[in-house]
Amino acid sequence: MLTVTELAPQRAAQGMDARWVPVRAGILNVWRYYDEVFEFHRGRLLLRGPNGSGKSKVLELLLPYLLDASLKPSRLSTFGGGERTMHWNLMGDGAGGATRVGYVWLEFRHADGRWFTCGARLQATVHTKNVTAAYFTTDARVDAPDGIRLVGEGGQPLTKAQLIDELGPSGTVHESAESYRDVVRRTLYRELNEQRYDSLLTALRQLRTPQAVRTPRPGAAVRPAVQRPAAARRGRDP
């Protein structure tokens, strides 16, 4: 059984108040998750449970996928392999029927009171190995008063057309993964250009690897492109 542990309070790092902080995340009708909401404590989330309880699956479905918007299996899998595709997540385990629709989403809050939610509507069928993804961003909150809902009156995940209507003027269903990713980058990491943003996502994929802390390889870590003074460049690196 997967459990979520609330972390002990701690003093915020200097400058953290000016950043977007993750508050909640959700997985709706994907893999074995029917409708699961994870609550972060001051931007942190600790998942505990035995092997097979779904800890790695949460990472695969949420981070960095919702920052990256790539359905490549090697970018989804925490092990970097290609055996667990998004189609398998939808149709391979816990699925019923010929078609399955699910949602995954992340919610952030800024110190100035703004909210930002990014997510994806995922659809797959038994007739093809393809997955149709519709990415959305909004300043509304999921299942909050005056917010948005991702399921209809009957409890079924919204169609793409229904999602567009539900978002209304508060958000956008993007025409492509690239346009969605660009909005996420410019909102959450506005000081990073595309190259540095991609380096950040690469680092996140490396750090979430289950064996990363057991066999650390400092040389494999992605370092930010920081321009050093000329005198430092002429000397020997520490």
Helix proportion: 25-40%
Q: Order of SSEs, N→C?
A: EEEEHHHHEEEHEHHH
Radius of gyration: 19 Å
Q: How does the major sheet shape up?
A: 6 strands, antiparallel
| N-end to C-end Cα span | 45 Å
List unreliable stretches of 5+ residues: 7-16, 221-238
Topology, element by element:
Elements (H helix, E strand, L loop, with lengths): L2 E3 L15 E10 L2 E7 L6 E3 L6 H8 L2 H4 L4 H4 L9 H6 L7 E11 L5 E11 L5 E8 L21 H8 L3 E3 L3 H12 L5 H14 L22 H5 L4
Antiparallel strand pairs: 1-4, 2-3, 2-5, 5-6, 6-7, 7-8
Name some characteristics of this structure.
alpha+beta
Structure explained in plain terms:
The protein is an alpha+beta fold and 238 residues long. The chain is built from eight helices and eight strands, in the order E-E-E-E-H-H-H-H-E-E-E-H-E-H-H-H. The protein has helices spanning 55-62, 65-68, 73-76, 86-91, 160-167, 177-188, 194-207, 230-234; strands at 3-5, 21-30, 33-39, 46-48, 99-109, 115-125, 131-138, 171-173. The protein has a six-stranded antiparallel β-sheet with strand order 3-2-5-6-7-8, with helices on both faces. The chain has a two-stranded antiparallel sheet with strand order 1-4. The longest helix has 14 residues, at 194-207.
